[in-house]
Design a protein that fits this description.
The chain is of the alpha/beta class. The chain has two domains: about 170 residues, P-loop containing nucleotide triphosphate hydrolases (Rossmann fold), CATH 3.40.50; about 60 residues, no CATH class. It has eight helices and ten strands. Strand 9 and strand 10 form a beta hairpin. The longest helix has 16 residues.
Length: about 240
């Protein structure tokens, strides 16, 4: 498959951000002047070993965590200039691992919480569309407590879809021990980009998942150290081995 360089403007831009909450250790800061942009309607895989700073990067990009230094912008606006409502919308686009879901709610009820529309018909349509994108229409009436870990991750992604910025940050969504579940999650990530028109950023260690991304960027020790457009699993695995700290 041919390589490419994408020229689309970034939906979210991070400029020389540093996070010092691990600065007192010998391992240095969680992020160290990391700069990156996430172009619209692309699936970007942030790849690196455990402790590389991937989760911290996603939390900063989504406004969940403030960097110690540097600038985070969504479109033409810096996060520091956003009001609380705008920040809450952006923070809601971050899907942690594992997602914290209220076990007593049904799948439908959980996704419905994120819908802005007040009209009952419009709300229902938005919920069902979100569940359709993650392949859980038939699980709408099931309690979250009865779902598998992989299904709960898909519900969490569905809950981030109905309102707010059209960007989604997903932290380690797959379990490498469950190949079928990982493939379903990866298929959902591609669907969100190609059919739902979302910009998706996923933190991942699994080369097979990264290979489904439009590009893989490599984070080691809080710094970006490389990028591969349209990566293959073999390329990602080789880069991870080469970049081992």
């Amino acid at each position: 498959m041919p390589k490419f360089t994408d020229v689309r403007l970034p939906v979210v831009q991070l400029v020389r951000i540093s996070v010092d909450h691990h600065g007192a250790t010998d391992h240095g800061p969680a992020l160290d002047e990391a700069s990156v942009g996430f172009p619209e309607r692309l699936l970007t895989a942030v790849v690196g070993p455990s402790g590389a700073g991937k989760s911290t990067l996603l939390r900063c990009a989504s406004g969940v965590e403030r960097p110690s230094r540097g600038k985070v912008s969504r479109g033409s606006r810096e996060l520091d200039a956003m009001n609380e409502r705008e920040l809450m919308e952006l923070r809601g686009r971050y899907v942690p691992h594992p997602p914290a879901l209220p076990p007593a709610l049904t799948t439908y009820e959980y996704v419905d919480r994120g819908v802005c529309a007040t009209d009952r018909t419009a709300r229902r349509a938005a919920v069902l569309e979100a569940l359709h994108h993650v392949g859980l229409e038939k699980e709408a009436d099931r309690n979250l407590a009865g779902l598998s870990a992989e299904q709960r991750m898909r519900v969490a992604m569905a809950g981030a879809l109905p309102a707010g910025p059209r960007v989604l940050f997903v932290d380690e969504p797959t379990d490498s021990r469950d190949g079928a579940g990982s493939r379903r999650i990866t298929g959902v990530l591609r669907t969100l980009v190609e059919k739902a028109g979302r910009t998706v950023v996923v933190a991942i260690r699994d080369p097979a998942v990264a290979a489904r991304a439009d590009r893989a960027i490599f984070l080691v020790g809080g710094r970006f150290v490389g990028k591969i457009d349209r990566p293959t699993a073999k390329e990602v695995a080789a880069e991870l081995v080469r970049r081992q700290p």
